[in-house]
Amino acid sequence: MASSISMTTTPFLLLLLVPFLSLPWHLICGTPVPTNNQIPKHYVVYMGAAPVASVNENGDHEAHQAAEILAASYSQMLSSIIPRQESDRMRVIHNYNHAFRGFSAMLTEHEAAVLSEHSEVVSVFGDKMLELHTTRSWDFLQGKLGRLVGDRLFNNHLSTDIIIGIIDTGIWPESPSFNDEGIGAVPSRWKGVCMDGKDFKKSNCNRKLVGARYYEASVTPRANQSRLAKSSGTPRDSVGHGTHCASIAGGARVANATYFGLARGTARGGLPSTRIASYKVCSTEGCSGATILKAIDDAVKDGVDIISISIGMNSLFESDFLSDPIAIGAFHAEQKGVMVICSAGNDGPDPSTVGNTAPWIFTVAASSIDRDLQSSVVLGNAKTLKGFAINFSKLSRSKTYPLVLAEDAAGNFTPVSEARNCYPGSLDPKKVAGKIVVCFGDDPSVSRRVKKLVVEDAKAKGMILICEIQNGVPFESGVFPFTQVNNIVGSQILKYINSTKNPTATILPTIDVPRHRPAPVVAYFSSRGPSQLSENILKPDIMAPGVSILAAMMPKNEPGNIPFGKKPSDFALRSGTSMACPHVTGAAAFIKSVHRGWTSSMIRSALMTTASTFNNMRKPFTNSSDHIANPHEGGVGEINPFKALDPGLVFETTTKDYLEFLCYYGYSEKKIKALSNTKFNCPKSSNEELISNTNYPSISISKLDPHQPAKLIKRTVTNIGALNSTYTAKVQSPPGLSVKVIPEKIVFTKGLRRVPFQVSFNAEDAKKGYNFGSVTLFDQRHSVRVVFAVNVQ
Q1: Distance between CA atoms of residues 281 and 297, nearest Å
Q2: 102, 594, 617, 637: least buried by Cβ within 10 Å?
Q3: Could you give phi then psi for residue 145, rounded to 5 degrees?
Q4: 289: which residues sit within 8 A by CB, 6+ positions away?
Q5: What CATH superfamily is the domain 10-126?
């Protein structure tokens, strides 16, 4: 049968080409456009939702032809604006035509501006370099009740058809975490591929690792230019980040996993039977936004259920929602029923540093678990002081070494402040060789790694860092003796040094201390809210373990990092919101495996409204400064996957809600229609304050005027529990902030599943600034907690 494009497809494609022909005639004819000596850079040309024909789920020849015609139309656009003598730039680098429409190419600033005015184009933005946000954890999350419920569920044969797409640095397929023993055939709906590479074969994929992609043309954006980076030519992970995240989300059970004796236990993902598809978009230089966008497009087409992205923009350079590749890709993934979970970033503890804040993204903060990695300092007076680090020191209690303050070991003409902070070149090797050096962390611009290298290069015996920065997040120093102490312990060390002429000390190798308290604690590095883009959506959403997480790693034979006589480890301990994100991904996959019909927003709501708010001392969560954590630090609380299986009520956030959010944010109706490929119209009244009415499982109000009447916030809940049930509202609010739920009782009957209600906020007597609290809806069995953040002007 001759192949042809169906009559239903052809009219759309013809219409698609018409606007291209409406470009100025001198552009169509290829007349050179003045470039003003501009250097071409990598740009993304985003054109909104994809046509239905190009995402035909059957993957038939007709859909393939439609995609080819789209690609040809993109090339035609380029040839119409790029001078003929620069024909090498008339190449589409990334072609987006599955979940959404557009392409990326090398353009000058002028050419990008011309395209941005095109009737079919939603936005044009420069490719941005995004950053990676980088065993016991699952047991800690579940607790005794969780393990009992979990055993029951696994015995009842949980679904093994959930597919997680990991967009990251690739995969190390030989890791035991990706063993497919006991897992059934690959789901027939999987349409992805396992790409061959220079050191990767299709046979490296299996029933567990169902797919692996890499991208030939990665573009590395830099300050004034973009350059096409040489392709890695393989889906294989050369960094370790992607492998680590994949195994946290869905790794198989691996008994007796350990990192050179530390954190020993059974390593596993949230749902060990989960399938994993790897999309390699990052290298040691970072992650191209345009490539991430392509990976999301591919993942949706391939058939993943959930996408996990432990990557984001530095908070100083956060883009608006239609210039952010992750936000754009996530929106269209959500349209297609694919949940997107992202890390919040590692720019804490400063406020307004949270990233990945679009309401259709599930944004994850990081917390600690109940395991401490302790490296003690033993002083010459036999006093032992606790520090934290990951080191495989050979030192012991039997011998101590001279102890010297870094500022007393300054090199010639070196400012004391620089030596005190162990700046490069600041120490006199003659004054530190063979000694244990005490450095300070007054200057955060000099990282722990740099300080350690400075001291080590000066032939010191070891290093003690007195610093509150990264408190509780252990630094890995390999075989070099290193430990970090807080200011309280540091003052005891300084007191000892001043009490004797010949102070000495030793640093003991790291041991893991179980049942550490308190836990969880919001990690020092975890990025904080409120969002810079919109304070009327509470971000981050939730928190999960992200400190010293044991997970799979490709074996690295790095001198100085491996204990003497040991082989490279198949596992590693890593910290970051990068590690927290796949914990939530694993939890979401677990819930999806039980409730196949639940949407992304239902799963998010279930996890948020059932989150834990107390630590293992039965007290409210704290941050790394020992203060009670607020929702801008840890979201609504710590994930509780098993409790989320039966939330009672859920807040369903629809595509219509997200489109209205964009209206309220200030985008034009024309752009929103192109983005959604619908006949959607913005509400007549659109302003940013209305974002607070988005049907989200938390509430945020950026401005509450105490001199105005009470502000009413709208919500609608969906009953997924017993047909006839009544929920009663309970409010927890700070003094002076009056919060009421209208009505106080929400009644569901057999024919009534969705019920609207309102929450009123009156700040007449409230303190200025952010006020935090919660509204809880409860019946005989369920407790549905909705956190709020209200900024009183």
Answers
A1: 13
A2: 617
A3: -65, -40
A4: 44, 127, 128, 129, 130, 324, 325, 326
A5: Peptidase S8 propeptide/proteinase inhibitor I9 (3.30.70.80)
Q: Which residues of 375-403 are buried (b: 16+ CB within 10 A; e: fewer)?
A: bbbbbbeeeebebbbbbbbebeeeebbbb
Cα atoms found within 13 Å of the Cα of residue 347, Cβ hemisphere only: 25
Q: Which residues of 633-648 are buried (b: 16+ CB within 10 A; e: fewer)?
A: bbbbbbbbbbbbeebb
- Rg of the chain (C-alpha set): 28
Residues 6+ positions from 499 with CB-CB distance below 8 Å: none
**704 CB neighbour count, 10 Å cutoff:** 21
CA dist list (Å): 28 to 20, 119, 121, 702: 9, 15, 17, 48
Model confidence over 538-547: pLDDT tens digits?
999 999 999 9
508-559, pLDDT tens digit by residue?
999 999 889 999 999 999 999 999 999 999 999 999 999 999 999 999 888 7
Q: What stretches of 303-415 show up as alpha helix (H) in DSSP?
A: 325-335
Strands (E), 230-386: 254-259, 262-267, 275-280, 282-283, 286-288, 306-309, 311-312, 339-343, 362-367, 371-374, 377-379, 384-385
Q: How far apart are CA 360 and CA 341, in angstroms?
A: 9
- CA 205 vs CA 176, 192, 232, 554: distances in Å: 13, 11, 18, 16
Q: 665-687 in b/e burial notation, b at 16+ Cβ within 10 A?
A: bebeeebbbbbbbeebebeeebe
Query: Binning pLDDT at 50, 70 and 90, where does residue 156 land?
Result: very low
Give the whole-angstrom CA distance, residue 460 versus residue 466.
Answer: 17
Q: Where are the domains of the chain?
A: 10-126, 131-367+520-649, 371-514, 650-792
CA proximity to 366, closest of 392, 348, 384: 348
Q: According to CATH, what is the number of the domain 131-367+520-649?
A: 3.40.50.200
* Contact between 554 and 175 (Cβ < 8 Å): yes
Answer yes or no: are the C-beta atoms of 528 and 348 closer than 8 Å: yes
Task: Read off the pTM.
Answer: 0.90
Domain boundaries 650-792, corresponding CATH code: 2.60.40.2310
Q: SS3 for 27? A: helix
Peptide bond into 709 cis (omega under 30): no
Positions of E strands within 429-474: 436-440, 462-466
The whole-angstrom separation of Cα 689 and Cα 701 is 7
Q: Which one, of 506, 383, 372, 525, lies nearest residue 448 by Cα?
A: 525
Domain topology for 371-514: Glucose Oxidase; domain 1 (3.50.30)
Question: Annotated catalytic sites, by residue?
Answer: 168, 241, 578
Residues 6 or more apart in contact with residue 408 via CB below 8 angstroms: 431
Mean pLDDT of 57-66: 60
Letter for the amino acid at 436? I
